[in-house]
Structures are given as C-alpha cells and as structure tokens.
Amino acid sequence: MNTQCYSDNGQLELDFQGLGRRKIVGKFDGGHVSTDGGVLLLREVEARTGIISELADCFTDNRDPSRIEHTVEELVAQRVYGLALGYEDLDDHDRLRVDPLLAIAVGKSDPTGEHRRSAGDRGKALAGKSTLNRLELSSEKDDRYRRTPASVDRIREALVNTFIRITEMKEGVPKRLILDIDATDDIIHGEQEGKFFHAYYNNYCYLPLYIFCNGHPLCAKLRRSCIDPAKGSVEELKYIITKLRARWPKVRILVRGDSGFCRDYIMSWCEDNKVDYILGVAKNERLKKIIGRQLYAARKRHEETGRAARVFTWFWYKTKKSWRQERRVIAKAEHLDKGSNPRFIVTTLPDSDRKLYEEVYCARGEMENRIKEQQLDLFADRTSTHYMTSNQLRLWFSTFAYILMNACRVLGMEGTSFARAQCGTIRLKLLKIGAVLRFSVRRVLVSFACGYPWTDDYSIIHRRLCSIPLRA
Description:
Blueprint: E1 4-6, E2 12-19, E3 22-27, E4 33-34, H1 39-49, H2 51-56, H3 72-84, H4 93-96, H5 100-106, H6 129-137, H7 152-171, E5 176-183, E6 186-187, E7 196-198, E8 203-206, E9 209-213, E10 216-221, H8 233-247, E11 252-257, H9 264-272, E12 276-281, H10 285-290, H11 292-305, E13 309-317, E14 327-336, E15 339-340, E16 343-347, H12 353-361, H13 365-377, H14 388-412, H15 423-431, E17 435-439, E18 444-448, H16 455-466
Parallel strand pairs: 5-11, 11-12
Antiparallel strand pairs: 1-2, 2-3, 4-17, 5-9, 6-8, 7-8, 9-10, 12-16, 13-14, 14-15, 14-16, 17-18
Helix pairs in contact: 1-5, 1-14, 1-16, 3-5, 3-14, 7-14
C-alpha cells in the first residue's frame, strides 16, 4: 500500500511501488522546477507582437505608485499566460505565484521573489488570487477596489490592431478578407447578472457575439440571451471594417454568416458600404416551391444512383415585407437517404452557384471550430462572476490568450506537425515541458526534460519566432 509521510525536515514524502529491492520515494523538493517550460515560446511571440502589452494599455492604473509591487501589465500578462497554460481559475495563481518561469514570462526582474517587501511574500514573485480578482472586478461601479478600470473602446481597438499587425507580419497587405460572424451559447450555472433562459439551447446562458477573420477574433462581445442573435452586428461590423479600410484602403471584404444573421438591415448596410456578403437563408414553403423542379430532379437522380444528389440553381428573391429589394438567392436542392434537404444562401457575389455554396459558404464551419476551441481550450465560458462587466473582461482575457496562441501557431508552426493543431494540443505537447531553472549573476539557465519527444519541432518554432524582429 502506498503511503505518504513527512521527513525530519518537514518535507512531504510519497512512497510509490518499489523497483526490485529499491524503494521509490517522491518529494516536492526539486528546487526551481517548472512544468510549463514552453511558456518561453509565448514570451517570444509577445516580444514581437505586443499582444499582451496592448491589452494592458487598455487599463487605467489609479493605484498609489509607492504601494505597487505588480504593474497592470504584469497582472494582465500573468492572467493571459495562465489561461494559455491551462489555469482557468484565479485560485490556481496562489500556487503559480512561486513558479519562477512564469515570473520570467511575465517580466519580473526578481523571478524568485527573494526581494519582496513583505516577509510572507518572499519566494512568491507573482500576484495571488486576491490581487488578480481586484483587477477583474475593478471596473464594477460598486467595487471598493475600483483602481484599474478597463476601457471597452480601447479593448475593441486592440482586437483589430493586433489582427492588422499579425497579418502584415505574416502576409503583408491582404487583397481580400472574410469576416465570419456568429453567436454561441455560454451556459450559466449560477445567479449571474443578465441571466436568461434560452429555449433553443434549453438552458440559462449568455449569447456572446463573435467575429473572426483568418482564425483571429475581431469581436468577442458578451450579451444577454434574450435578444435576436444578430442584434448589434452592424455596429461591430461598421467599427471593424472602418478600421481595416483605414489601414488597407483597397482590401475587399466579405461578411459570412448563417441564417441567424440574414437580416435586411445587415444586408442593406453591406450594400450601402460596398461590402460583399454571403448569408444563410431560412427555408420556407415559398422558397421550396420555387425550386420544385430542381428538388424533383435531385430525387430522381438519388433513386437512380442510390447516392446523395445535389442540384444547384439561383433566382432573384424578395420577402413580402422585410427585404427592401430583390437579392440573389442560391439554392441547393439535395436529396439524401433520409429525404429532401434543400438549403438557401443569399449573396452579392457573382461566382458559380456550386462554388459559392460548397467552397465559400460551407467554409464558415471553420469559424465554429475556432469558437469551440476558445471555449474548450481557453476557457471563454468561465464567466462565473456575478457581474456582466467582469464576465466580459474574463471573455476578453480568454480572447487575448487565444490570440497569443494563434499567433504562435501562425508565425512559428507552419511546416511542423503543429501547423493545424488546436490550442489544447499545442499546450499539451509544446507548453507543458518540465524545466529546471538555475540562476547566476549573468544568466538564467533553463534545462528542459531530456526525454521531451518534440525537441525538433520546438527548436524549429523557436528559430522561426526569433527570426522575426522585436517590436519597437
């Protein structure tokens, strides 16, 4: 039976199954050891993109400078790096504050915390859960620690600025951009502010609005679920597209979304501002009647071949009341083993019907994967504070952690086995590396685990990131 006890010096000892005649005893006395050796790659990404520092600039620090031991940028960096490394709870940081490697990533000049002011804090270079909690709640009107409020407008701007910067680093000036827009459910398990029951998701939830471009989130807006999914879309699109065109005046922009965003005011705004769109259209009896011949042809083809049959067509269409004008609708008349399966999209693009549906519209599924990736791997659904404002801030922290991970993927992993890996895989295989730290006057020596199996990929990614010039 395995046991645990304490040695004479107070160290916890763990007895494991022996190896022959030899005992195996474990102790937490390895010195400066970290399980997150890969965080140094994220630090290199930050040094070249300024993702975290731009987010930190969105906060106003009203604290007494003589009492500050952790700057706002250090607190924001600790929170974002923590999420990227898999630590979603603030409670985790009471243990993480003794990790010297995370302190190095954050930018602490005293990574071991030997020179902290308070004797109780010595050996703990980073902030604890209470300090980070005050940062998250600092924008609440009734919070007595309201010292570091965040600016909503500046964070919205930072989301677009980081996309522009990373895009130019990777490919220069783009010729065409596709903005994917969608809403998703964020299940609520407590009595949070803005709690509503959503019949479609059959639960109490928030309904955040997302806008992605090339895997980069340009908008992550927390909303109550008692609204139309498309509400507020035009305001966000207008803000984002105005900034993109100010930087890239000749870029063509396409807005892509499902039928939840097929609203006349969205299409009209796009038409008035020379923005293309391709949106799903909810099927109805009138639409199915229009493509009756194509549905019949698809059914006959399915009966003859026994395989799924598709017939594409297009026509001009206008609703009786809601659309201001006729628009080009593309129909997919499909027949499957389970029966007829018609689908419709509306677009301003002139390309062939099949290409627009199969290659352009269906590609929006990749955006849904990115939303799931952020929720599952970067804890975007960890909106468990009482207030919507602080929950929105948590969503932004998760969003910038995702941006940091995605920038590492885009800038450093092309051509490696991690080029299309999800953030959870990147964390498991590239960030979770055992490392021993040794400190001297001139350097910090980080010794990674010699049994690490992805040494070659790690070296390639490191070399590529270091070849990018540092941000001025």
